[in-house]
Amino acid sequence: MDITFLLGNGFDIQCGLKTSYLDFYNHILEKKYSIDLNKEFDEKLISKIDNIIYQEIYNSKDNIKNWADLEFQLGVFTKQLKEENQVGRLADKFLEDFEDLWADLRDYLETIQIQDDIEISEDFSEVLFKTMDNFFEGLLSQEYDEINNMLMHNNNSHYNYSFISFNYTNSLQKIIKKCSKTSKENIFNGTNLRQVFNSIIINAHGTVENLLTLGLNDETQLATDFFDDTDLYDLIKPISLANNREYMRRDAENVIQGSDIIVIFGMSIGSTDKHWWEKIANTLLKNENKKLIIHLYEEKLSSSAPRRKRIRRESKENEFLSLLDSLDLSEEQGLQLRKQMYVVTNSQYIMNVDLGKYLNLDKNKSDNIIDFEAKDIV
Questions:
Q1: Between 89-112 and 21-33, two packed helices, what is the crossing angle to 10 degrees?
Q2: Could you tell me where the beta strands, DSSP code E, fall in 233-366?
């Protein structure tokens, strides 16, 4: 039986890393342009920002809450520029500023992730085992029993666990490296089948050190005739990943297609990752016995009342299904997918490690993170 985890930025945040979109952009504005994002919008400040993408982000700051929103807004911005007939030189300017954003993000993440010279003294094996045992804790009773029965009646193969990371940082790799044990007797039935973790992490969008990939999902999400084809493809993540002559995308797709249970944790179900939601949906549609568990996080859990639980679940189902338009699903297929999708809210079991003490940062200093030459703001 194959169980696969897809981990997003929420995992890094849980680990204590300041990897949210707002962490990054606040840092850029403060260090590069001496602007406080939390202060009231100031039209005069925009003209002092020399990067047109950062200008647009500042203009649209109320609409951008996470990385998926940021990527989507990049495409919206290209459409706005095209409507204003600002093609040509501004297209080149956009690409140059996109490269600057990419470089700023890489430098920022490189500095805030765990440094190579940091020695981690803990053994995280128990954290890994708790994840392997309890990844479906928090489901509704009927859903819990369905997953538990799947696990109990597995008599054909070991319980094989894999991780696909959509983060660029090294946090998951650092944790896995400090697991002295990556397999154990299974807790689900009396067989001698083992729970086994594959320690080779697939970084679907690259890493800080290698092929960090940022952009849109497909050509519909940006102004295609605003750029030359070769430049356009650098902005579309699936094409960029296919063109980089590495195997991350292929390997991630193969693992997803072979999975019996897929677990999404810490990821926004955003339109700029439609490619992956379609791969998951196709995997589920080909076998109605396969399951998808989506872990949802609410900073302030609104209610545990049955109605609120239903609304949370249906909202996440609708969000996922709304991004499968290219599959042209029938009503029957939509209903099938809903039956295969389960939602857990605020789980404490998925690789719950506080890495904050290993970040080698003095919280009393303001210069722990890479600095930029500030622009003169008047």
A1: 110
A2: 261-265, 291-296, 341-345
